[in-house]
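EI: anyone free to look at a 139-residue chain?
SC: sure, send it
EI:
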Amino acid sequence: MSLNLILKKIMKHLAIFVGDAIEKILKGEKTIEGRFNIDKILPYNKIQKGDEVLLKQSGRDIIGVIEVENVLFYENLDGEAIGKLRKEYGKELAVGDDFWRQKAKARYASLIFLKCPKRFLAPLKSQKHDRRTWVLLEK
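SC: here you go
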């Protein structure tokens, strides 16, 4: 049985990150992952408590995994609503001002509360080479 088949049976999601987000997650400094988008795209309404998420650095290997403790979904966001989310969850999201500027026009948000971050002893190779930032591995 190939590693890909094993992973597909165990893991449900593959999340791609830029910058130092994965390191912050693995150190426990970032306890919420926020995906803000103009359209309803993954993981919106496709992730739930108990799911597992593989952590992949953009252009690199998969280096860890987290478990989803809870998820909140928001729709019809505007500047005021995004400001409230920033005030309520900004510390746990552990993102800078640039993130909030880039996401100012988002209409949908998935806030994913993280627990049990684990770093793999050796990175896992990934077959993913497209531009998607979230992949559903198992339904």
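EI: The first strand starts at residue 13 and ends at 17.
SC: 👍
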